[in-house]
Prior knowledge:
Elements: H1 3-28, H2 36-39, H3 51-68, H4 85-117, E1 121-123, E2 129-130, E3 150-152, H5 156-202
Antiparallel strand pairs: 1-2, 1-3
Membrane topology: Multi-pass membrane protein
Main location: membrane
Pfam families: L6_membrane
Amino acid sequence: MCFGRCARCVGFKLLILALLSIVANILLYFPNGETRFASEHHLGKYVECLHGILGGGFLVLIPAAVFIGLHNDDCCGCFGHKDCGKSCAMLSSVLAAFVGILGSGYCIIISALGLSHGPYCFTHLQRNWIYPFTESSGGYLFEYNKWSECQEPHNIVQWNVTLFSILLVLGGIEFILCFIQIINGILGGLCGLCCSHEEVSHL
């Protein structure tokens, strides 16, 4: 089994997931495609945390690029040096995977908090911009009849719930893939060391 191929496969998947996270986070800034709520600072505090752009996006793109860069199919060599090159490359990918773990973990936490806290909106009862569902601890997600309390932005509850849920799922998949690469990188590094030791003994 070649651990480099597995790492590249993980890298390409992370690349797609990171780009989707960035797009989903950008959409959160523009409810119903309108820009005025962002310019008027009427966005929820968890929307502005950049968890999809920074966490699930750029911090995951870093390990994705590293994993894809493990292009050599030889499990015992890298960059023309068969003694330790591949093992060093695979072990360095473990460090990159930890960066992805941090980024995806941040995306998961903020998405979960955003879902639990609820949207920031203008309500017809208080006639003001508030967080009407904070005390429900996420219970509002199943009380669809209360969603109409938010008048502006229109359908903001559905918009936030959908996008935060997408980011939560994307962050979870990224987290799992990075964890898989940590195991793969450690095993690949040990494989490279074993191969180099075998080559030395044959000499």
